[in-house]
C-alpha cells in the first residue's frame, strides 16, 4: 500500500509552481521594459522557461512518494519540458527574425508557424500519455483534467469573445488558447491533488 499523501510531500511542488509564475512575470517585465538585445532576451526567457524542470522533478518525487509515478508519466514530463523549451525557442526566433530580417513569402509563413511546433509537441505529449498510461485510474484522472481544461478554455473564450465584441476588453490573439488550456489542466490537477 502506497504512503498516504501529505501536504509536506506536496509542498515543494507548490513552491516551485509559485517560483515559476513569479519568474515568468519578472521575465516578461524585464523583456518589456529593457532593451536587452537578442542574447539577453533569449537568456531571460530560457531561464524562466527552464523553471519547469524543477517543477517536474518535485512533482515526480511527490508522485513516487505517493506510489503513482508511472513510466508513461515520466515520458510525458520529459516530452512536455522539451515541448515548452521548443515553443520558447521557436517563438523567440520567429519574433526576432520577423523584426530584424523583414521576411516575406514562404519564409514568413514558416516563421509564423515555427512557435506552433512546440505547442503541437505539447499536445502530442498529452495524447501519447493517454495512449501509453496503463493504469486505468490514472488515465481517468488525466481524461478528467483534459476535459476540465477544454471546458475552461471554451467558457473563457466565449465570455471573452462577447466582452470583446462589445469593446469592453482588448483583443486576445488566438495563440493564447494553448497556454490557457495548459494552465486550466494544471489547475484541475492541483484541485484533484488537494482533494486526495
From TrEMBL:
Q: Which domain of life is it from?
A: Bacteria
Keyword line: Membrane, Transmembrane, Transmembrane helix
Q: Which parts of the chain span the membrane according to its record?
A: 12-31, 37-59, 80-98, 104-130, 142-163, 175-194
**Looking at the keywords, is Transmembrane helix present?**
yes
Position of the signal peptide: none
Please identify the protein, giving its name as recorded. Answer: DUF2178 domain-containing protein
Tell me which species this is from: Sphingobium soli
Classification of source organism: Bacteria, Pseudomonadati, Pseudomonadota, Alphaproteobacteria, Sphingomonadales
Amino acid at each position: 500500500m502506497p504512503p498516504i499523501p501529505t501536504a509536506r510531500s506536496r509542498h515543494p511542488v507548490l513552491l516551485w509552481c509559485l517560483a515559476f509564475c513569479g519568474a515568468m512575470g519578472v521575465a516578461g517585465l524585464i523583456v518589456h521594459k529593457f532593451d536587452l538585445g537578442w542574447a539577453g532576451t533569449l537568456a531571460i526567457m530560457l531561464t524562466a522557461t527552464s523553471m519547469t524542470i524543477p517543477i517536474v522533478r518535485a512533482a515526480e518525487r511527490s508522485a513516487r512518494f505517493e506510489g503513482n509515478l508511472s513510466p508513461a508519466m515520466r515520458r510525458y514530463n520529459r516530452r512536455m519540458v522539451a515541448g515548452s523549451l521548443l515553443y520558447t525557442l521557436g517563438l523567440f526566433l520567429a519574433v526576432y527574425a520577423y523584426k530584424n530580417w523583414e521576411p516575406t513569402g514562404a519564409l514568413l509563413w514558416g516563421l509564423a508557424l515555427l512557435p506552433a511546433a512546440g505547442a503541437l509537441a505539447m499536445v502530442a505529449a498529452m495524447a501519447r500519455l493517454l495512449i501509453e498510461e496503463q493504469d486505468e485510474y490514472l488515465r481517468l484522472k488525466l481524461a478528467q483534467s483534459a476535459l476540465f481544461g477544454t471546458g475552461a478554455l471554451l467558457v473563457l473564450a466565449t465570455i471573452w469573445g462577447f466582452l470583446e465584441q462589445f469593446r469592453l476588453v482588448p483583443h486576445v490573439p488566438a495563440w493564447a488558447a494553448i497556454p490557457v488550456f495548459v494552465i486550466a489542466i494544471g489547475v484541475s490537477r492541483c484541485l484533484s491533488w488537494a482533494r486526495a
